[in-house]
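User: Run a structure prediction on this.
Assistant: Running it now.
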Amino acid sequence: MIAGILLVITAAVTQTSAPYGEGRTVWIVEVRGVDEPIYGFVDDWDRKVISIEPYKPWKPDKKKLSYQKDKIVDKRNVTARRLKEYVKTECRKAGFEQVVTPSGEMYVSIEEARLAKASRDSASTVMAAEAAKFPATQLQPRSENSDLEAEPEQREAPGIVAQWWGHAVVLLIAVSLVLLTAKVSFR
């Protein structure tokens, strides 16, 4: 019983969310009356009404599109190359750009990416200007007679009383509270 509870708690704590769409098949679905094919996830092809969750990793949306099965003209799996090409072009159309971060790939608006790049460029320019203010000779270590390189003061290690007096006070208070509680309880 306890092992089962610990297993459930461990699973809940260690569970990580999978990246958008991982482990699901992306389909290209052509529907009569719709100009462009729909890239998306389909859970069940055997129903009369087919629900398609559009694949848009730059703006995940769980809203599904529903079409009668007889309106679907064609369906096929997407190859990895074609999916990558689709994401790149549709991302640009939607105003997003894919960027690589230490935590993985993510999609940000093109304007945010432009501002971030401008900020990094500005910061590097300022840092270079600050570094230019100090000639390399000023960055050399000082001579041995310099006051800045004086040895730090050596302090003696604290004695046992200095280290443990606080613990002793807490223990003394705890013992006195236990004795007081026992005296009042057992009158």
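Residues 11-16 have pLDDT under 50 and may be disordered.
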